[in-house]
Amino acid sequence: MSEIILYKSPLRALRMIALTSLFVLPCIYFIFSGDNPKFIFWLFAGIFSLGYVVGFSNLFDRRPQIIINNKGIWDRRLKFETLLWDDIIKVYPFHVRTPRLNLKSHSFICLALKPEISKKRIAPKWVENFNRKVRAQKASISVSDIKVNDEKLLSAIKQLCAEQPENRAAIISKLNLK
Question: Among 156, 1, 148, which Cα is nearest to 88's?
Answer without folding.
Answer: 156
